[in-house]
Design brief:
This protein has about 150 residues and is α+β, with helices and mostly antiparallel strands. About 40% of the residues lie in helices and about 10% in strands. It is built from six helices and four strands. A two-stranded antiparallel ribbon has the order 1-2. A hairpin with a 5-residue loop joins strand 1 and strand 2 (about 10-15).
């Protein structure tokens, strides 16, 4: 999770806040279902951090954007079509704390969340600027993001 702050001067800073991971369950799951379960984890984590920030800052709502590298997960979240029970329950969990329009596609090659699963070790994390500062596109103006998403 990254916090993106845009100052009145136009300067943008992006900083790592936290991360969370789980080991995949013993019961075999498809990759899209594992990605969906990861999105449930992200939505819950972001909700907790947002509440903490709002209490600390005492300000209005915090604009939120979620990025996933799974097209299947993104389609399940964004579409309003009937879904199988497993998927429907998890999408319902995600939509309790987020909105469909807050979810976007991020190509896997730009996704820092995949860094730990690519065989990288803790000692490699310190030098990885993408891990600490997020993907480069986060410093771009938010209005550019939909265009970025459609070009990927």
């Amino acid at each position: 999770m990254y916090l993106r702050v845009e100052y009145e001067t136009g300067e943008v800073q992006v900083r790592f806040v936290t991360s969370k991971a789980k080991v995949s369950p013993i019961k075999k799951q498809t990759i899209p279902c594992l990605e969906l379960m990861g999105s449930v984890l992200v939505a819950s984590l972001v909700d907790t951090i947002k509440k903490t920030l709002q209490e600390a800052l005492g300000q209005g709502p915090i604009e939120t954007h979620y990025w996933v590298d799974s097209v299947a997960t993104l389609c399940w979240i964004k579409n309003n079509k009937p879904l199988k029970q497993f998927v429907r329950h998890r999408v319902d969990q995600i939509l309790k704390t987020s909105k469909r329009e807050e979810w976007h596609f991020c190509p896997g090659s730009l996704n820092p969340a995949d860094f730990p699963s690519r065989g990288n070790y803790g000692k490699d994390t310190g030098a990885n600027t993408v891990w600490w500062e997020g993907p480069h596109f986060l410093v771009l103006t938010i209005s550019v993001w939909p265009k970025l998403e459609s070009n990927q």
